[in-house]
Amino acid sequence: MACPPSLFVARQLELLEREREEAIAQTELLRTCRSPQTLQRHGLALLALQVIGARTGLGGQCLLELGPAVAGGRFPPHQIRPNDVVLIERNDGTGDASGSKSGVVWRISDARLIVALDTELPDGWGDRCRVATQPVYSTVLGRMRRSLQRLQRRIEENDAATLLDVLLRGHAPRFDYRVKIEQWLDPSLNASQRAAVQLAISADHLALVHGPPGTGKTYTLTEIIRQYVQRGKRVLVCGPSNLSVDNLAERLAPHKIPMVRLGHPARALPSIVEHTLDAQTRNSDGGAVLVDVRRDMDAALARLPRCKKHSERRNIYNELRQLRKEYRRREAKLVEELVGNARIILCTLSGADSRQLQGQTFDVVVIDEAAQALEAECWIAMHRANCVILAGDHRQLPPTVLSNRTRASVERSVLATSKDPAVFTLDVTLFDRMLAQHGDTVKRMLSTQYRMHQDIMAFPSLRFYANELTADDAVRARLLSDMPGVDATDDTTIPLLWIDTAGCGWLERVEEDVRGRSGDSRFNPGEAGQVVRHVRQLVEAGLPAESIAVITPYNAQVAHLRDKLRERYPQLEIGSVDGFQGREKDAVIVSLVRSNDTGDIGFLADYRRTNVAITRPRRHLCIIGDSETVGKSDQFYRQWYEWMTEHAEIRYADANDDGEDE
Ligand SMILES: Nc1ncnc2c1ncn2[C@@H]1O[C@H](COP(=O)(O)OP(=O)(O)OP(=O)(O)O)[C@@H](O)[C@H]1O
């Protein structure tokens, strides 16, 4: 039996609070240990900006336009992205920190940054400012906490909703198999995809679609959503990231179903821009009136910089306040109409808490990438329906949890089945919990994959997917040498290669943290040399650098590899394994980094990370690592290496080879 619902929710609340404290502590650490200049060097801040203008956006928000203070200047390299929460601070030499404001990045280009603020910048602000990223946790965690508190109330009131019974009270999920699919809207679906659609459509309250890498999860969800709509149902489609939501929106867009994508349109793909609430509001009949009010607001905003007198400025602020009120009233009415008429609403999980969805209910909530979402985040959306379809892959990485750095996450399959709420950690997802609680009857796994050469697929299939994956004919034998312009060489004609660095003495090194102490991250210059060599050989064989990704579990190795490779191969993608989840490339080189005498493998012990790393390539996977270190005390890595010796090519690195010369 599962743990008592109210205890479970109380424990989740406690864990969220710990997460909030950790997020605050980390931000503080950044702020206290690093100067603004250092933050800018790390891509977390942009300094010396000037206010270029302000106009009105959706919701009557103030869209503040910023650019480099130097005329014709460009921003330095940075990591600021649309939807990031940023803090705008005045930087006019007065040293006055008052008036700093939090906003959301709307758009960002080489020389322009537009930030959405709830109100204008305070009166008296100088034109000079700087911007620094802030963890979004504060907003998202707040929404999660509210959703759990609501859940707690529903449990106390004994809410009879059967979704709660299945998700929290251990009742078995029910399926009505009389619900048959008369016509496949997408006839190209394969047998396992059809089985998943059938299960989802028959579910009274809960069904899981397990989608291993490249198996067409998005394809399948599209059919599920369309089948629901055809049955007259209203569907809320969510995912933890904007990208997950946009991928589905893009697949649904051609089918002409009334749908609305909520959230900032900044990152919307061109094909779905017309479905964003922002665009639909503008293009509707009522939108013309809004445009008029918006014009009045922009005109008032434009007058502001010219007013020197305090009283004049105060009058303009009063005028703006009235106009904003009017704008919000009219807009709310329009939004209610648009949202109310839509059969499909798409938004991030935390976006399901937005005011545009106030009072809205749905027949079903579909959650993509559910194995990467915190359970509390899922509840934000799940309060709106009595049936939920979860799609994901619990064999890949779970959501990032700041407060949980222990090996507990590795052992979470044990935790997920426990009755003791004290052992739950935040990265035990709802997807995990439901599988542990209800078993395989509640899920269907997609088993044909459309990404990897069959040899690349074979080990992950064996180890993570009960050997049930098959490679579609179109991909099963494709090699790099089959690509146009690529020569057949020793490297391009093999799908699997391990460059073994055992015995080379290339020991891992520890990166210093922000305080100059030994940090968590590691790098390995010897391995990096082998990466350089392999990239060079592939490119010399005619493979474009943009078809190659170099990935590694450690951020310090990412930075080290970027230093070595970026200039020579600007198109080459170099990143962390975690950041590459959900992506694919023709050739993928994985640098394992760990090399020591004790066999310490750190967070490589989370095999889900290894699974993500080795399932990214289409045609060629090259592992660079020390087989002795990783296999010393870890059975998984020992088995993997043994398997590789039978099925892949093993090359032994030369200790005198730094990868730079022929
Ligand atoms: N039934 C099918 N017939 C032919 N191709 C398919 C089919 N299903 C999926 N594909 C192809 O497989 C690829 C992956 O599909 P999709 O993007 O839906 O996968 P996914 O499982 O969501 O991916 P990820 O591994 O990133 O989660 C796509 O290029 C798609 O064209």
UniProtKB/TrEMBL annotation:
Keywords: ATP-binding, Cytoplasm, Helicase, Hydrolase, Nucleotide-binding, Nucleus. CDD domains: DEXXQc_SMUBP2 (cd18044), SF1_C_Upf1 (cd18808). It is found in: Cytoplasm; Nucleus. Gene3D superfamilies: 2.40.30.270, P-loop containing nucleotide triphosphate hydrolases. Residues 203-416 form the AAA+ ATPase domain. Its EC number is 3.6.4.12. Residues 185-429 form the Helicase ATP-binding domain. It catalyses: ATP + H2O = ADP + phosphate + H(+). It comes from the Eukaryota. GO terms for cellular component: chromosome; cytoplasm; nucleus. InterPro entries: AAA+_ATPase, Coronavir_polyprotein_1ab, DNA2/NAM7-like_C, DNA2/NAM7_AAA_11, Helicase_ATP-bd, P-loop_NTPase, SF1_C_Upf1, SMUBP-2/Hcs1-like. Its main location: cytoplasm. GO terms for molecular function: 5'-3' DNA helicase activity; ATP binding; DNA binding; hydrolase activity; RNA binding. Belongs to the DNA2/NAM7 helicase family. This is DNA helicase. It comes from Syncephalis pseudoplumigaleata.
